[in-house]
User: Fold this.
Amino acid sequence: MPKRIIYWFRNDLRLHDNEGFLKATQDADEVLPVYIFDTRQFRDLSLGFPKTGLFRTQFLLEAVQNLRDNLRKKGGNLLIFKGKPESIIANLAREWQAEAVFTSKEATQEETEVESAVSKNLKIHNVDIELFWTATLYHPRDLPFWVSRLPDVFTEFRKSVERQSKIRATYPEPATVTVPAGLTFEKLPEIYELILFSQPPISDPRRALSFKGGETEALRRLDDYFWQKDQLRYYKETRNELLGADYSSKFSAWLALGCISPRRIYEEVKRYEANRISNDSTYWLVFELIWRDYFRFVGLKYGTRLFKVTGIKNDFKTRWNHRQDLFQQWVNGQTGVPFIDANMRELQLTGFMSNRGRQNVASFLTKDLGVDWTWGAAYFESQLIDYDVCSNWGNWNYVAGVGNDPRENRYFNIHTQATRYDQQALYMKHWLPELADLPTDKIHAKNHIQK
Ligand SMILES: Cc1cc2nc3c(=O)[nH]c(=O)nc-3n(C[C@H](O)[C@H](O)[C@H](O)COP(=O)(O)OP(=O)(O)OC[C@H]3O[C@@H](n4cnc5c(N)ncnc54)[C@H](O)[C@@H]3O)c2cc1C
Assistant:
């Protein structure tokens, strides 16, 4: 009997730098690569939108298809299911007499509960589960402190890891993938099978970038942004802009699904520094990836507090309102404040928004409208093509003032922000064509918040 291992792909949809998958191909005679669309992730929320919205679902479907294509090139394939991983994996293990299940490890409640349920169901069949950490630049085991002692201030965290931790080298792709004969490979589900009555989304042609899911596109974007367009050398100066494909890397959506590993990006930055230029911008991209790591470890440290309205700070003092009318105006980009509306329309019509935009709209919802910040976070979860559980909920905690922002009562003055980052009102006019004929100063005047 050949030794068989199931590899359960989750948010690690890639072949490069995938320790667990590589090890599965090395330890076993035959591997069963599996992806499961967990139907609970596509349910409707009481706020009136699905937990996973159309743009993100489309991107995920593309990423899974691309993984299958890349596995086929190595002689393998991908089993695709729709349902609950805890039942499907246990059945598969029994049916194919697998010795073990390997998979990537997640940080937050819903994901770790599924891990535990899978593990429990495997135990009765005497099948082991092995978890691999694949998501961050720094491996948690290489941190200079226990995660329970993670500093609550980002700068302290960053300085400690930069001084004391090493970033591990990437793992190579497996040369070949051998799957058992006789497996049935179902086709990818259609979008309407995941979100009822839905068609693939139509992205607005005014979008910043035409995002396509998958490892192949992720590596292409890396090459394009660094080497072809040579944008990395300007990143620190352009990263707060709002219009166009190249003011920032746009790596986030691929990072969120693990189509690209942060260590792969790091190695490419080092190569760029050796061959082109090493400057503040090349450092700053890594700096931002350390922010991403930080929120992942914050998620590990604080568990379910990340998702509670009281936040990781356990703030029981702040009172939030639950006004549906205000929330809907915000969602639909109809607040009457052009800088907010332009950003919210971009999100609604494309699934993407710049970091500057996210900070402003989150601050506006929480500090100006006083609406429960978890509603905003839930909407971002549904709508953002790059939704990442820790980056999203961690940033929302931070902006809402219930997280680990060392500055008390940080407030974004929308008028000042719009004047600084959209001086000519080009971004606002781009998304709000109804303002096209209005003089710039009149548009800016509308960004004064009436209290
Ligand atoms: C309220 C709010 C919600 C957010 N939700 C998400 C989310 O769900 N998923 C997500 O990936 N990012 C989120 N961010 C962080 C940030 O806005 C995006 O990562 C960034 O805009 C993505 O564009 P980019 O890849 O071009 O970024 P770049 O500027 O090119 O940065 C490179 C990479 O660094 C990481 N990064 C940059 N800024 C941050 C940050 N503040 N926090 C964590 N990682 C960062 C991302 O992985 C990004 O791809 C959120 C920020 C805010 C304020």
About this structure: Residues 362 and 399 are 7 Å apart (CA to CA). The mean pLDDT is 96. Residues 135-169+215-302 form a domain with the Serine Threonine Protein Phosphatase 5, Tetratricopeptide repeat fold (CATH 1.25.40.80). The first strand starts at residue 4 and ends at 9.
